[in-house]
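[09:14] KT: can someone run the structure on this one? pasting the chain below
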Amino acid sequence: MSKDQTLDDVDRAILRALQADARVSNAEIAREVGLAPSAVFERIKKLEARGTIQGYETRVEPDALDLGLLAFIFVRAEERPGEARAGELLAHVPGVQEVHHIAGEDCYLVKVRAKDTRALGRLLNEGFGAVPCVTTTRTTIVLETLFETLALEPPAPPEPALPLAQKAHESTAEESSRG
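[09:31] RB: done, structure tokens below
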């Protein structure tokens, strides 16, 4: 996002409202932020056009689709530094929800959902095993998810920098008042 496209407090409030409930009406957001619904609509359209808002999704209970097993898989691949060919291929394996290119001994961290351990084994053998440059995997099965969110807290605007002389004066005044 360029400097002329920084988020103001109203944009941040709109983002918080949409992340809490993507189906919230423009009228309700307008009441929260003190603008007309048409102004909120225009701001949302601008946030979408800039790519700040990337989309709207429906979250589905995994058990409803018989995908109750959640696992994270660390993947090592034989590829040149900076290359992400294995990650691109892993992203197309059925059951894969996320692929992260990571630093460290492993190359990727992959989040997957499966019906059970047998289905997870098939996913590893048939899906990950079909990616030619994958050399090893380490799998961690999640026993229970205690907290999970997709929401991002919009950062607060930076406070204006005070000149050093003013900072020093405020610091001295604060120390004097403590006495």
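[09:33] KT: thanks! Residues 19 and 177 are 43 Å apart (CA to CA).
[09:34] RB: yep, looked fine to me
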